Amino acid sequence: MKDPGPVVLFDGDCAFCNATVRWTVKRDPLARLRFAPLASDAARSAVALTDPGCDFDSLPDAIVLLDRAGVHMASTAVLRLARHLRFPWPVLTLALLVPRPLRDAAYQVFARNRVRWFGRADACEIPPPGLAGRMLDDTS
Fold first, then answer.
1. Euclidean distance between the first and final Cα of the chain, in Å?
2. 100-118 vs 74-82: helix axis angle to the nearest 10?
3. Cα–chain center distance at 67
4. Which of 8, 27, 70, 124 is most buried, by the most CB atoms less than 10 A from its CB?
5. What is the pLDDT of residues 41-99, one digit of tens each?
6. What is the pLDDT of residue 15?
7. Nearest 5 degrees, angle CA 55-CA 70-CA 91?
8. In the β-sheet with 7-10, what is the strand arrangement from edge to edge?
9. Nearest to residue 52, comparing CAs of 70, 32, 31?
C-alpha cells in the first residue's frame, strides 16, 4: 500500500459514524481525506504504514485519524480532522489547546453512547457520490 495521505478510520457499524463520514466528504473541498472502516484489512494496512509500532487491536472502535504526524484517537482525531475541512471547521483546531484529558472525557461520553443514541448502520448502505472512490481497499 502506498501512502494514502490523511485517512479517517471509523466504526462501519455505527450509524452516526457513517453519517459523519458522508458529512465530512461534503466539507473536504480538496478531497484529501480517505476513509476505511476500522474492521477492514485496509485499515490495518494503513495503520501499519503510518506507525509500524502501533498495536492495531488496541485502537478504539470509534474514530482514528492517520496522517504524517501519526495515529490520532478520540478528541485529537476529531480536531485534527477539522483542519482538512473548509471554513469555518478548521477553527475547531484551537480546541487542541484544551488539555487532552478534559477533551477526551467529553469525547468518551459521546463515543460510549453513540450506537445507543443513533443506532447501527444499514449493512447494505450505498456510498454517496464522491465517497466510493475515497474508500481505501487492500490495493490502495
1. 6
2. 90
3. 11
4. 8
5. 999 999 999 999 999 999 988 899 999 999 999 999 999 999 999 999 999 999 999 99
6. 85
7. 130
8. 34-37, 7-10, 64-67, 70-73
9. 70
Quick one: which H or E segment has residue 20? helix 15-26
Can you state the angle between helices 100-118 and 15-26, rounded to 10 degrees?
Answer: 110
Which CA distances in Å does 32 have to 6, 43, 86, 131?
7, 17, 12, 12
Element holding 66 (H helix, E strand):
strand 64-67
Residue 4, pLDDT > 80, answer no
- The model's pTM is 0.87
CA atoms within 13 A on the CB side of 38: 20
CA distance 87 to 68: 22
Phi, psi of 120 (to 5 degrees): -95, 155
Angle at 10 between CA 7 and CA 29, to 5 degrees: 45
- Copy the grid coordinates of residue 108: 468518551
